[in-house]
Model the fold of this input.
Amino acid sequence: WHFTDQFDLQVGARYSENEQEFDETISGPLFVPPYQVSADSEDDASTWLISPSYKISDDLMLYGRIATGYRAGGPNPGAGFGFPDQFEPDETTSYEGGLKGQFLDGSLSLDFSAYYIDWTDIQLQQRDPVSGFVYYSNAGNATSQGFELILAAVPVEGLDITATLAYTDAELSDPTSGGIVADAGDPLPFSADWTATLSA
Done:
């Protein structure tokens, strides 16, 4: 909806259904008779978003966004070795606000955003210490918050310079489940506090 030349509002919704059937047979010298596992999963989800934006000028815009997200669950290959044969969906609610603009006749651009994500039943990758199988399990809840900054400049024709900076604070917020050994406040795997790039 374009309420005025400066103020816009975007809304959206999605409904989805997910069905999976999984059958696996593991055979070999260590599996006599062959090991068989079957797993089925079925779920559905409704997600939505609301995103207003306000143009301060032709070259500068403020925006906000509230959105929900969903990631389907599924079966665990090699299930039955002491870990779950499947994992459940996880869901997010994210809040984001930012500023986008161009300056100096377009030779300098800025993109800044800050966000907060509330994560429910987060899916985490695990490794069984006995069999070595990699599988997924649902932990409790998690949060992720931080900011991202992108600066791009064209000081002279033919030369592009881009710099990025991001900070992320991602951690488990509630007691975990699914056989995951962790405490509230532990950082999420593969999440770096600070990242930065510089390219030309």
Notes: The radius of gyration is 23 Å. The first strand starts at residue 7 and ends at 28.
